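FYI - complex with beta-D-fucopyranose, inputs then prediction.
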Amino acid sequence: MTTQEEQTRAGLRFPAGFAWGAATSAYQIEGAVAEDGRGASIWDTFTRTPGRILGGHHADVAIDHYHRYREDVALMARLGLSAYRFSVSWPRIQPGGSGPVNSKGLDFYKRLTDELRRHDIDPWLTLYHWDLPQELEDAGGWPNRDTAYRFAEYAAAVHEALKDHVHTFSTVNEPWCAAFLGYASGEHAPGRREPENAIRGAHHLNLAHGLAVQAMNARRVGGCVNLYAITPATGSERDLDAARRIDGLQNRFFLDALLMGRYPEDVLADLSMELDFIEPGDMRTIGAPIDVLLVNYYSRFTVSGEPGGRASAAAAPTDSASPWVGSEHVSFVSGGRPVTAMGWEIDEGGLVEILTRVAREYPPIPMVISENGAAFDDVLVDGRVHDPKRQAYVRAHLAACRQAIDLGVPLEGYFAWSLMDNFEWAWGYGKRFGLVRVDFETQERLLKDSALWYAEIIRQNRRHEPTDS
Ligand code: FCB
């Protein structure tokens, strides 16, 4: 499918200036964990804890991006990307999470962003993609309010050093995951199972976002949320209540905070805990104006509040508790759709649903899809990876983006997750999300069929850029 008419038919023609991107994160790709003064992060510790990562994998080398970034930017250029979303490793910049900056750490991101700009690729910088300096965790981690202030200092330092290299800064990637997988379910680092502290952590992650927005005073700043479409399993009162609760914790807790400076009342009531850690003025800080909302979207949840509900296939890979603080009774059931290798149901309609919802229910805000993609069990055959399912996934979700634009959503870009196969957190190297295959032994990179296809879609769109509307 290459001609312009075919693209139009498939709903894959986008307005001029639409950002064509791919995304990664520091810990998942960089490796070089002990180089140039980098300190330890909670993921270094977590991956060393027996039983926390499938296969006992760690990311000491990961896909060696720290040394191969030039080659990786060249791959991005081959794809024709106009934007690249990456994250900065906090412990490279401040090895212990506070105090003077480590210039060697910053230099890496200067080299990377220079290289991107040389190829006309717009760097989208994320400040925090879950690799908290271990020293800050030792001091209490995200449940400790002080971490939010440390984050604002770190953000200001990164902004100061890179503001001439980077146009768009974003704060915390998926605060839901950082708080609830890190401190309630224990699936992610630091692996604590302390429900109330997860809520504290969530609030302090939001506060960190707001403080950083203020401290950076950046030209263009964004916040990032992972949103799910959510359906009740049936029309029963319990199922409807389950849907309200999960939507509340997953979506509204963060959207309401970032975009309206408040928490939803019903969610606070579900928590039934003392909320004295929300201090006067916090909500105003958290609601500090931003320029763009980064939305990560993967799937739809179908939920039930009926007793004895059975969890769906998309359960955690390792022994962990419920992340759903205050709503632990809710079960996640199959919605009957095809799933990816993660067991995540494929539902591009959910993407249209969440985008139109944000546009309808919140103050106007430009958005980008900052992550979207799928893991499948790729097979290498004669030097090729035929991955029609990934291609179909991206195609369907891009068409959903186009549909959302047609419905009036101010959507300005799409970042595929991920540029390359990488370290998928508790799943280790077992799940491949990349458009680019990586041989984890030799570090060889290879464009999968989906990458070649994506490159063609980008090429067609960018070719017509100047005259598009
Ligand atoms: C998101 C994370 C990203 C990656 C994808 C699959 O939740 O932000 O790092 O793990 O899921």
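DSSP finds 16 helices and 13 strands in the chain. The chain has one domain: 23-224+257-295+347-460.
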